[in-house]
Specification:
Strand order of the largest sheet: 1-2
Radius of gyration: 22 Å
Structural class: mainly alpha
Distance between the termini: 35 Å
Length: 497
């Protein structure tokens, strides 16, 4: 009887993942039958299939928050369920729903009519959910590979585009290399201590003895490879080389997804791994993280100054913001971790607005060409509300009050200063001022640059309008009253200390 109850609890913990995996299988069989049916006339099912996927993700989100068990380790301590996993999964599913809602019209314009696109998106979400719950290095690696393989294909989803194919191939080659580094680091750790489970590793490293001292160099080498793989996945400089090219070449709908969603899963596992498991090696890793943070804010701020293509500029902007998050991690305090999660959520909200804007800026003569800053000219005249929404988002990224981005940056800078990282904080503040220049340059194109010929834009979809409007309101509201979001970030941070 006890075994049955235990099994029920395990299944209850995994019910969202089981439901999502089952839905993926059923939807694959259903779509394969429909699109290949001669009697139905080989229909295009993009629109209806998108709504079904939205329903599946919504039900999965409800199952995640239906859990009443606060903490549990399942399946021989391979997976963990706590407040951090619950909130991280909730954020992954919520922003996945938002992203899938806004790019339906874009897929139709780009002639991406294959149902496999949505199946891969759902598989990527499943991989991210498993990644967040991973409590073993092997399950962590398998979850990363599941979501990574899906993202490689999504980056090359536009088959008739050379840029899309090139970005997918480049993402696959470099991503496979980083996965190899991760697996090699895991093998070194396993070969050194004989286990890959987080709980066993944390217990092993909890005490200091002569055996661990002798093995310290081997463990550090393994951590070097593991951390390098993680820094690659989050596009931290100087391991960012894939990000601008993939952002530029991939379809906008795909870029939205892997620019916004994976970061919450990566940072959650990243923090759990190095705050809890390998806490004895904090000094080494904090120094490495600080160096990567400095590189990221520098390259993201200075290289973006030369960019004329919007997607490449947003890629370097993302690198810069990853640097600020790593800087918060380097503070090595619960306040720093709280500031990291707060900044990450604000960044995800702002990114949704920006990518919705990019999706909405479509001319009547839709081409495969990558949009430049010049394409934003005359937008304030043809669509003033859309231009004002972009103004709010870019000012938030720049950290201009009264927007949530200012409060997010301020919390990170105050936290790092209180942790005696004075030089790094001052340097990050200066680079933030420099990065404000290219955000202002975009706003200049929105309001003050005029074309000789008027550009006519297609109407903004209802879903994009709703998302941009609500997200813009949140960016203003969270500056005035950030208490609720700060409490959420604090609950997530407390799980790691």
């Amino acid at each position: 009887m006890d075994f049955i109850l235990l099994h029920q609890n395990h299944f209850k913990m995994f019910l969202p993942e089981v439901f999502l995996a089952t839905s993926i299988l059923i939807l694959t069989l259903y779509a394969t039958y429909v699109v290949s049916s001669h009697f139905l006339g080989y229909p295009i099912i993009t629109s209806g299939f998108n709504k079904i996927c939205l329903l599946v993700l919504s039900l999965t989100l409800l199952l995640v928050y239906n859990n009443t068990i606060p903490f549990m380790l399942t399946y021989n301590n391979t997976f963990i369920f706590d407040a951090l996993t619950t909130y991280s999964k909730g954020l992954i599913l919520f922003f996945s729903i938002v992203c899938m809602a806004i790019f339906e019209d874009s897929l139709l314009r780009q002639k991406i009519n294959n149902f496999e696109y949505f199946i891969l998106l759902l598989c990527a979400v499943l991989g991210l959910m498993l990644l967040v719950s991973s409590f073993d290095l092997i399950s962590l690696y398998l979850a990363i590979e599941l979501q990574s393989l899906c993202l490689y294909v999504l980056a090359a989803a536009k088959k008739d585009s050379t840029f899309s194919t090139e970005s997918g191939l480049k993402y696959f080659i470099l991503g496979s290399f980083s996965s190899g580094l991760l697996l090699f680091g895991i093998s070194i750790i396993y070969g050194t201590v004989g286990t890959t489970n987080f709980e066993n590793l944390s217990l092993l490293f909890a005490g200091s003895n002569d055996v661990l001292i002798n093995l310290e160099s081997s463990i550090i080498i393994g951590l070097v490879f593991i951390s390098a793989a993680f820094f690659f996945k989050i596009a931290a400089a100087p391991l960012h080389m894939w990000s601008p090219d993939v952002y530029e070449g991939a379809p906008v709908s795909s870029t939205i997804f892997f620019a916004v969603i994976p970061k919450i899963a990566m940072f959650s596992v990243f923090l759990r791994l190095f705050q809890n498991v390998f806490s004895n090696f904090h000094d080494f890793f904090l120094l490495a993280t600080l160096l990567f943070a400095m590189f990221s804010v520098t390259i993201g701020s200075f290289v973006a100054l030369k960019q004329k293509k919007i997607k490449r500029l947003l890629a370097y902007s993302s690198i810069s913001h990853v640097g600020y998050m790593l800087l918060a991690f380097s503070a090595n305090s619960i306040e720093g971790t709280q500031a990291l999660f707060f900044y990450l959520i604000i960044y995800m909200i702002t990114s949704v607005v920006l990518w919705s804007l990019l999706l909405s800026v479509n001319t009547l003569k839709n081409t495969d060409r990558s949009k430049t800053l010049v394409d934003l000219s005359y937008l304030s005249t043809t669509n003033p509300l859309l231009a004002f929404t972009g103004l709010i988002a870019f000012f938030s990224l720049a950290g201009v009050p009264p927007l949530a981005g200012f409060y997010a940056k301020m919390t990170i800078f105050l936290t790092t200063i209180s942790s005696s990282l004075i030089f790094a904080s001052v340097f990050a503040i200066l680079t933030s001022v420099i990065s404000s220049y290219y955000y202002i340059r975009i706003i200049k194109n929105l309001y003050f640059e005029k074309r000789e010929n008027t550009t006519f834009f297609v109407p903004v979809s209802r879903s994009c309008s709703l998302v941009m409007g609500s997200s813009s309101f949140l960016l203003i509201y969270l500056f005035i009253n950030p208490t609720l979001l700060m409490l959420l970030a604090e609950k997530m941070a407390l799980c790691l200390f």
